[in-house]
Amino acid sequence: MGKNDFLTPKAIANRIKAKGLNKLRWYCQLCQKSCRDENGFKCHQMSEGHQRQMQVFGENPDRVVDGFSEEFEETFMEHLRHA
Ligand SMILES: [Zn+2]
């Protein structure tokens, strides 16, 4: 399996299905916070904490994305070990 295979939308959708994580639709990756519904998610986006995360992200997007990629890979490998 290529390093990027597990980043394709199809692979991600399959993993979400496999884990039953369909509620991730309202998940804020920046704050790592999940919201119950669209309204909750909108409220979260207006929140002070989220605005702060957006600012941090805006100042250094590359570093933040790199961090998420690493974290994603770690979590994914962890799931593989437990599969
Ligand atoms: Zn947020």
Q: Would you kindly provide a written description of the structure presented here, covering whatever features stand out?
A:
The protein is mostly helical and 83 residues long. It has one domain (22-82). Helices cover 65% and strands 5% of the residues. The protein is built from 4 helices and 2 strands. The chain has a two-stranded antiparallel sheet with strand order 1-2. Strand 1 (27-28) and strand 2 (33-34) form a beta hairpin. The mean pLDDT is 81. Zinc ion binds at residues 28, 30-31, 33, 44, 50, 53. Residues 28-50 form the C2H2-type domain. This is C2H2-type domain-containing protein. GO terms for molecular function: double-stranded DNA binding.
Approximate helicity band: 55-70%
**Span from first to last CA?**
16 Å
Mean pLDDT across every amino acid position: 81
Q: Largest sheet at a glance?
A: 2 strands, antiparallel
Tally of separate domains:
1
Strand order of the largest sheet: 1-2
Number of strands: 2
The helix count comes to 4
Structural class: mainly alpha
**Rg, please?**
15 Å
Principal-axes geometry comes out as: globular
Order of helices and strands: HEEHHH
The low-confidence parts are none
The small-molecule ligands in this entry are: zinc ion
β content, as a range? Answer: under 5%
Protein name: C2H2-type domain-containing protein
Domain C2H2-type: 28-50
GO molecular function: double-stranded DNA binding
Pfam families: C2H2-zf_KIN17
